[in-house]
Amino acid sequence: xxxxxxxxxxxxxxxxxxxxxxxxxxxxxxxxxxxxxxxxxxxxxxxxxxxxxxxxxxxxxxxxxxxxxxxxxxxxxxxxxxxxxxxxxxxxxxxxxxxxxxxxxxxxxxxxxxxxxxxxxxxxxxxxxxxxxxxxxxxxxxxxxxxxxxxxxxxxxxxxxxxxxxxxxxxxxxxxxx
Length: 178
Known about the structure:
Blueprint: E1 3-5, E2 14-25, E3 30-41, E4 45-49, E5 52-57, E6 62-68, E7 74-80, E8 86-99, E9 105-117, E10 122-125, H1 127-135, H2 141-158, H3 162-177
Antiparallel strand pairs: 1-9, 2-3, 3-6, 4-5, 6-7, 7-8, 8-9, 9-10
């Protein structure tokens, strides 16, 4: 099972980065939120999203990573561009969330991901990787079923919630920018 660390994003594409991580325990959220800022990118990275070219790595791009304590099966990475605009929300489905020796969060990734676009469209990603992982024994059948259970519950919870997610994102982004 692969692990994804909060402070490790496209290492081969990033020359310099800044990383902050903070534990929150307030009325809106309990858990870790981390901010990774690409100070200097080796090169701009562009992907296709909803039929358009979208920059996902460049100088001054940021990832706000949210690790809720009450749901260790989800980590959300919010991509924020150099103009401080939210590009999208990318939900990793995890077997568990843990802390490394530095007290930074990481997930035991279950391969399946959910993308929420600014348009409100929700998409399941990497279903083929999930199937391959169970086929080769990297994860169990129970893990496979957990991934879909968590993803389906998540989709119901976030559908139509762009405004709430945007407000949440900017609230904690501003806290970590201080």
